């Protein structure tokens, strides 16, 4: 079993954000970010210089991100074909009299410029994903830790899902959106509706391979180079580039029972959320696999509780009875109870259809000013009255996505 981090008290998460890492080539020297690349950039060894691109279109893509609010123009974009290429680039910067900024860009899904490198070099991990030689996603079993998957940091979670499912397995903890890199989400935390039970993605990692800010290639884990291991996981990319992660796996379900309940009272909504994530160990060990909440803001404010129970052929006969036990005594609006059964993959990849629709309407590339907050349980009712009602409701704000859901501090 993997270990968990005791770093949360009792919090509600608002507005999920996933960012990709930015590595300062000299760790801790953030004042180097604005320094120009040295003139010898164009005179690197051909194995490096041939992979540096500075054409206007490439620079333009690397100068923006999903937030579409901030622009920072790099001097070049690096297309590595091996881990050694990235090591060499970082060592060149680290050994330079004037180190230059380096940012590892996965899907560019940050919202505040975290994957950019002003006057520096952006390492295009998407290009690395296409060019990397060797197996980048590999499932194995260990007698001590069970099943796990070794994944290149540049790989997408959607591809991890499809590969592990071929073995009847899957990671336990996900993000709501799967077209993100493994290194990108592990550099943040990797949080979604499974976190209350399984912990964030960083709590499900056994081992990492990391290129540090000095260009050292280091394997780290709970027992080996543990300080680096804990710094990199959730370290916002400031301690190294993740090139491999060993992630725990569990048997994958085939189907999910997907339920939505509506509330008009925020206090009842949060109390039911807290009750549902505390059920473990009670009532025949029946517990949910996923729980989130959201605001519906079309006419006033309603609060939607979204919950999921996984099952397969062996447990199909029991899932409805278990759901009845879980829903018993909840204070949602009578009659506003919606449920459906969908394949496991369809549920995990549910955001993709919305993305494609927004892309077709030209709305995927608009500015996205997103914010994440961890709010203490003791203050969440004040947050509802002060923000949701006094700002969102009074100003009749109906656009945007607001997520509100609880986490167990033990995870």
Automatic annotation (TrEMBL):
Q: Check the record and name the Pfam families matching this protein.
A: Cytokin-bind, FAD_binding_4
Q: Keyword set for this entry?
A: FAD, Flavoprotein, Oxidoreductase, Signal
The family database entries (Gene3D superfamilies) matched by this protein are listed as: 3.30.465.10, FAD-linked oxidases, C-terminal domain, Uridine Diphospho-n-acetylenolpyruvylglucosamine Reductase, domain 2
As recorded in UniProt, its EC number(s) are 1.5.99.12
Top-rank taxon, per record = Eukaryota
PROSITE patterns according to UniProt: FAD_PCMH, OX2_COVAL_FAD
Top EC class of this enzyme: oxidoreductase
Molecular function per GO: cytokinin dehydrogenase activity; FAD binding
Kindly list the cofactors needed.
FAD
Q: Signal peptide location in the record?
A: 1-24
Q: Which residues cross the membrane?
A: none
Q: Which reaction does it catalyse?
A: N(6)-dimethylallyladenine + A + H2O = 3-methyl-2-butenal + adenine + AH2
- Single Gene Ontology BP annotation: cytokinin metabolic process
List residues of the FAD-binding PCMH-type domain: 70-252
Query: Which family is this protein grouped under?
Result: Belongs to the oxygen-dependent FAD-linked oxidoreductase family.
User: What is the name attached to this protein's record?
Assistant: cytokinin dehydrogenase
Q: Which organism is it from?
A: Trifolium subterraneum
Q: What is the lineage of its organism?
A: Eukaryota, Viridiplantae, Streptophyta, Embryophyta, Tracheophyta
């Amino acid at each position: 079993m993997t270990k968990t981090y005791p770093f949360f008290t009792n919090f509600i998460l608002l507005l999920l954000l996933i960012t990709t890492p930015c590595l300062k080539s000299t760790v801790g020297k953030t004042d180097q970010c604005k320094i120009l690349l040295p003139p010898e950039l164009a005179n690197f060894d051909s194995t490096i210089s041939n992979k540096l691109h500075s054409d206007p279109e490439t620079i333009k893509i690397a100068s923006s991100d999903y937030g579409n609010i901030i622009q920072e123009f790099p001097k070049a974009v690096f297309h590595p074909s091996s881990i050694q290429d990235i090591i060499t680039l970082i060592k060149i910067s680290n050994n330079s009299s004037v180190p230059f900024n380096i940012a590892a860009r996965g899907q560019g899904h940050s919202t505040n410029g975290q994957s950019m490198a002003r006057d520096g070099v952006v390492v295009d991990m998407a290009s690395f994903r296409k060019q990397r030689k060797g197996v980048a996603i590999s499932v194995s079993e260990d007698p001590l830790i069970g099943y796990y998957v070794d994944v290149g940091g540049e790989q997408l979670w959607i591809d991890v899902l499809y590969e592990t499912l071929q073995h009847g397995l899957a990671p336990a903890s996900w993000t709501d959106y799967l077209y993100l890199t493994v290194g990108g989400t592990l550099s943040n935390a990797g949080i979604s509706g499974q976190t209350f039970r399984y912990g964030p993605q960083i709590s499900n990692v056994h081992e990492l391979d990391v290129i540090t800010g000095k260009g050292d290639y280091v394997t780290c884990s709970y027992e080996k180079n543990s300080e680096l291991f804990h710094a990199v996981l959730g370290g916002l990319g400031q301690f190294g580039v993740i090139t491999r992660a060993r992630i725990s796996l569990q048997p994958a379900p085939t189907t999910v029972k997907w339920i939505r309940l509506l509330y008009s009272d925020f206090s009842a909504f949060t109390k039911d959320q807290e009750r549902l994530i505390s059920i473990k160990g009670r009532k025949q060990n029946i517990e949910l696999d996923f729980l989130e909440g959201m605001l519906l803001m079309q006419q006033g404010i309603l609060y939607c509780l979204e919950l999921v129970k996984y099952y397969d052929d062996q447990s199909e006969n029991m899932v409805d009875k278990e759901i009845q036990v879980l829903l018993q005594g909840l204070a949602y609006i009578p009659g506003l109870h919606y449920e459906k059964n969908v394949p496991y993959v369809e549920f995990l990849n549910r955001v993709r259809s919305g993305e494609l629709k927004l892309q077709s309407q030209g709305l995927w590339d608009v500015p996205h000013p997103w914010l994440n907050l961890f709010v203490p349980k003791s203050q969440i009712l004040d947050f509802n009255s002060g923000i949701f009602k006094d700002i969102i409701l009074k100003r009749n704000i109906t656009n945007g996505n607001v997520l509100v859901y609880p986490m167990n501090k033990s995870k």
